[in-house]
Write a structure and sequence with these properties.
Layout (H helix, E strand, L loop, with lengths): L6 E4 L3 H11 L3 E4 L5 H6 L7 E4 L9 E3 L3 E5 L4 H5 L4 H4 L1 H6 L6 H4 L4 H7 L5 H8 L3 E6 L2 E6 H4 E3 L2 E2 L6 E8 L6 E7 L9 E7 L3 E7 L6 E6 L3 H14 L10 H21 L3
Parallel strand pairs: 1-3, 2-3
Antiparallel strand pairs: 4-5, 5-10, 6-7, 6-10, 8-9, 11-12, 12-13, 13-14
Length: 275
């Protein structure tokens, strides 16, 4: 299929993009990498009047380190982040998850913030962002605001972004000393969206576990440092509490089994990485 006709605007500045969104609102769509949006256009799942391309907007192509976090501009690709110096040391959970996102060809075009904006519950970056308590910066002609990712994702392909806002950047905090991290997923093939994915952050006092796939948005829970039967009971309870659903990839019952098995495996891997 081919997309429905639309106008196209290549934005050189943020102000140009913001003015377009202020004028067109819900009739506009923002294009960064296009790995999700272009497919939706071709299937006519979305039919915007205008496509606002921010891929060459210099201020949105910045990838910046600070003493405590990394700031990822809206046009930064997944491949560029994957190549970022010391990523495995600074944010190990991101480094572990990035190779699972599509294939290197799609990571060369797909953007980090684009994946967050698309909000597919089976994709890896929204899950990791929620486990790490990352934040997202939104901007419109009305002003700017910053929102935690756990509040940003509101449902299946739904977020708290307003039609006249663009994501300017996301902020991922560095791992703290004494933390361990692990990531695993089950998919039909490597690079496919996950049937279920698990991301874990652990320290000497607590376990944070995130589950992606099968529900409408990433689900994150925090527990004390459980072991043995207590951990098995907690994962079993979690498996039944999560709003997992049947779909063409797998039934909810299979996903509940993965929560228990893959959850335990990922927690133990994270525990082994404690520094």
């Amino acid at each position: 299929m081919k997309p429905a006709p639309f106008d196209y605007l290549q934005c050189e500045t943020e102000d140009e993009a913001l003015a377009c969104l202020a004028q067109h609102g819900e009739d506009a769509r923002v294009l960064a990498g296009g790995q999700s949006l272009v497919a939706m256009l071709n299937m006519r799942l979305v039919q915007p009047q205008i496509l606002t391309d921010i891929s060459r907007t210099d201020s949105l192509r910045q990838l910046q380190d600070s003493n405590a976090f990394i700031r990822i501009g809206a046009a930064v690709t997944q491949a560029r982040l994957q190549r970022h110096a010391d990523l495995a040391e600074k944010i190990p959970l991101l480094a572990l998850a990035l190779p699972h996102i599509g294939h290197f060809q799609t990571r060369n075009k797909g953007t980090v913030c684009g994946s967050l904006a698309h909000a597919d519950p089976s994709s890896e970056l929204p899950l990791v962002a929620c486990v790490l308590d990352a934040s997202i910066a939104l901007k419109s002609v009305r002003g700017t605001r910053e929102i935690k990712t756990r509040d940003f994702f509101t449902g299946l392909l739904e977020t708290a972004r307003q039609p006249d806002e663009i994501i300017t950047h996301s902020v991922f905090p560095y791992a703290k000393k004494g933390e361990g991290h692990a990531f695993n997923e089950v998919a039909m093939r490597h690079g496919d969206f996950a049937i279920l994915s698990v991301a874990v952050k652990i320290n000497a006092d607590a376990i944070t576990i995130g589950i992606g796939g099968g529900a409408e948005k990433p689900e994150v829970r925090a527990y004390p440092l459980l072991e043995g039967a207590a951990l098995e009971d907690a994962l079993n309870t979690l498996a039944w509490e999560l709003p997992l659903q049947d779909d063409k990839q797998a039934p909810a019952s299979y996903r509940r089994m993965l929560v228990r098995a893959l959850g335990a495996k990922t927690i133990e891997e994270a525990r082994a990485c404690l520094t």
